[in-house]
Amino acid sequence: MHKKLVNRFMKIFMFLIPPVIITFIPLGTKFVRNISLYDYPLFFLILSLVVIVFSCIIAFISHQTIYVRKFKIIDNSLKELEKYKEE
User: Fold this and answer.
1) Residue 61 belongs to what domain range?
2) pLDDT digits (tens, 9 = 90+) for 5-59
3) Which of 1, 44, 65, 74 could bond to 37 as cystine, CB 3.0-4.6 Å?
4) CB-facing half-sphere around the CA of 11: CA atoms within 13 A
5) Domain for residue 53, yes or no?
6) Pair 37, 47: CB distance under 8 Å
7) 45 is a domain residue
8) How many structural domains are present in the chain?
9) Quick one: residue 43, left, alpha or beta (phi over 0 = left, psi -120 to 50 = alpha)?
């Protein structure tokens, strides 16, 4: 059940990455540098696509390293408990 919940959360997170990035990149550059990225649409498009791709890759890798590793440890512990229970 916990695995399904984590996978569902990851799907929602991957779906939310593009809209959040497309929203926050122009806001961040406007507040930090006072530059409107909407004046440079090609640069904004390229920057957004690159950041979205890297964000999805980082999210997937972190999901694999954190949650999948924990699930493997839990599965191994359960197998050892079953062996101990049989003895």
Assistant:
1) 11-86
2) 877 888 888 888 999 998 899 999 989 988 888 899 999 999 999 999 999 999 8
3) 44
4) 6
5) yes
6) yes
7) yes
8) 1
9) alpha
